[in-house]
Write a structure and sequence with these properties.
Elements (H helix, E strand, L loop, with lengths): L13 H13 L14 E10 L2 E9 L5 H20 L13 E9 L6 H10 L3 E8 L4 E7 L5 E8 L3 E8 L1 H8 L7
Antiparallel strand pairs: 1-2, 3-7, 4-5, 5-6, 6-7
Length: about 190
């Protein structure tokens, strides 16, 4: 929900921006151990150009999301929606995919057009849609699609119009066969 380095949000919702500011003051980043509002990260790159000549690049990033926590949150969301679409009212039970959960890549809004995300979308576009949902006024989106020829599903989760994660669940060999086509793009 936080703005980028220029202070711009991925939306124009003033109420959400106000809530993001409130949370940034009170929440502590696990990466920096500071309040989120103070959690910009700095990176310094030094390169020797010639003897006695060095060039330094100072880079600043907005507060960063821990990728493992993002993938775990995505897994929990996929579990919930998978259960919902497989729920059988007569037995009072829903299902769980056979096999594993495989994260491919996460990206912020400005990087959604990267080669891996585009290749992922192209690879699974024709799969059977099981869940295509937009909720929370567009601040949460999820897509789950089933590969027709195997017990393999693709998933994509987007939060706050700012952050997207993608991957597969189910049969590992089937997921890897799809991944091989574009894994070298990473």
């Amino acid at each position: 929900m936080q703005p980028d380095l220029t202070g711009e949000f991925g939306h124009d919702d003033e109420e959400v921006a106000s809530e993001a500011e409130r949370k940034a003051n009170r929440s502590v980043s696990r990466r920096t151990r500071k309040p989120v509002k103070d959690s910009k990260e700095n990176l310094s790159l030094k390169m020797k150009m010639a003897p006695g000549c060095e060039i330094t690049f100072e880079l600043i990033s907005p507060p960063q999301i821990d990728r493992e926590r993002a993938f775990e949150l995505a897994r929990l969301h996929v579990i919930a929606f998978f259960y919902m679409v497989t729920f059988d009212p007569s037995s009072g039970r829903g299902g769980y995919w056979p096999g594993g959960f495989f994260s491919v890549l996460e990206a912020g809004h400005r990087d959604w057009g990267n080669a891996v995300h585009r290749a992922f979308m192209d690879a699974v576009y024709g799969w059977e849609p099981r869940v295509l949902a937009v909720t929370a006024d567009g601040f949460f989106k999820i897509a789950i699609r089933r590969r027709p020829s195997a017990d393999c599903w693709s998933w994509a989760v987007e939060w706050n119009r700012q952050y997207r994660v993608v991957g597969f669940c189910g049969d590992r060999a089937a997921a890897e066969s799809v991944l091989q086509a574009f894994l070298s793009l990473k």
